[in-house]
Amino acid sequence: MLWLDSPQRRAPEPSLGGGTTVDLVVVGGGFSGLWAAIQAKEDDPSRSVIVIEAGLIADQASGRNGGFCSSSLTHGLENGLARWPKELDRIEAAARENFAGIRASIERYGIDCGWEETGTLAVATAPWQLDGLHEGARLAARYGQRVDILDADQLRAEVDSPTYCGGTWLRDGEAMIDPARLAWGLADAARSLGVVIHERTPMTDLSRSGAAMSVRTASGTIRCGAVILATNAFRSPVKAINRMIVPVYDYVLATEPLSATQLESIGWQNRQGISDATNQFHYYRLTSDNRILWGGYDAVYHYGSKIDPSLDQSDVTHLKLADHFFETFPQLEGLSFSHRWGGVIDTSTRFSASFGTAFDGRVAYAVGYTGLGVGATRFGARVCLDLLYRPESDLLALKMVQRKAIPFPPEPVRWVGVELTRRALAKADANEGRRGPWLRLLDGLGLGFDS
Ligand SMILES: Cc1cc2nc3c(=O)[nH]c(=O)nc-3n(C[C@H](O)[C@H](O)[C@H](O)COP(=O)(O)OP(=O)(O)OC[C@H]3O[C@@H](n4cnc5c(N)ncnc54)[C@H](O)[C@@H]3O)c2cc1C
Questions:
Q1: Ligand 1, from 60, 98, 377: best to mutate by most atoms within 8 Å of Cβ?
Q2: Among residues 88, 233, 334, 348, which one has the fewest Cβ atoms lying within 10 Å of its Cβ?
């Protein structure tokens, strides 16, 4: 995995060596857990905080993603407007504050994660996609974001692909980062604030213990006043979480670094993140050493919500991605791929996180980021802390926070529903975006499937 194969990778923290007692246990050492631990200490330095991580810090989605850090908390403005039209102004204000908070923390803690506020290009690869992109640009402008509409020539002057028909350049609230370096830097920041981190320490059980909670691990039990579950797509002891999300595999390729001539052949001087405008979309970007990271398209669900390291590779999807890459950039024919991997995202029916508590308010969680959690997890961690410690917080009054995503049905209906939806989305893409009866039914119910 490109980001995790780095000389900046730290030696792991020791696993938990026995029982202990603290104020707050955070379960999960990805962005959600690390932001929760940092903000818990920033709020109250006297609070004792332990993070336990089943594997290694950043080894799951947080170290495997595309590194698009978006300010959006709603998986895009269109989704936010469709679901929370009355409070989207307030949500967007929180989104701007959250994005600025990420930038400020990176500066304050001196985290070298290649943060580049390049903005993102949304590109149309067929004319039918242009209307939707232009509508999206008008919406972004209405919410105060700087956005340019580019015709095919203007777009190809930015990044040269013969497949492009036009697009938009969203200039605000979109940064490219190296996600593993961000997560490792956040772990260092947490430690500098006094957070204790134990890697290779899976939580095996969660239960009440009088007025407190008990977090059981193989090597000992932690008694604590409160718990934040930051376990993303993984199976949870809180059943509501398992109903609200499905684990969906997303796959990625990275090329060898481009030579100066290869880079010149595609332009890309402004180094924007790029995604295309189909339901099954690709996302791609340059890394700091000028590789192209190229991911997306297939979003694969395995029966029974299966997650397993054997699913991290998919020859079929990786080959498909490679074909699509050379269709987009034929001038790079002959370039090889140095890395390929996959990772699991917590897809929810509303494409954005749901927030909740369990065990009479002693346990808080935020799950369901659906492929856009690099930035939004910091906000989710903030909401978890407010649920536990600050009932007067304005954020808790948002409908987006109070109401949860509609759950997925149990198997086998779950698998059938996801497969039907995946096929219907592919068909819509092949049919100039026209949505068939199944997708229209889901749209009417406010349900969907995305990555
Ligand atoms: C291939 C891919 C590409 C993506 N691209 C983007 C992108 O470009 N932009 C974007 O915004 N988002 C993207 N995402 C989504 C983004 O990576 C996630 O939303 C985000 O990293 C979620 O962070 P997290 O901390 O909640 O989850 P994770 O990083 O998955 O962390 C959860 C952690 O909890 C641990 N855990 C689980 N159960 C237990 C237990 N019982 N005990 C202890 N620990 C446990 C796991 O080991 C894991 O490390 C992508 C995701 C993938 C997989």
A1: 60
A2: 334
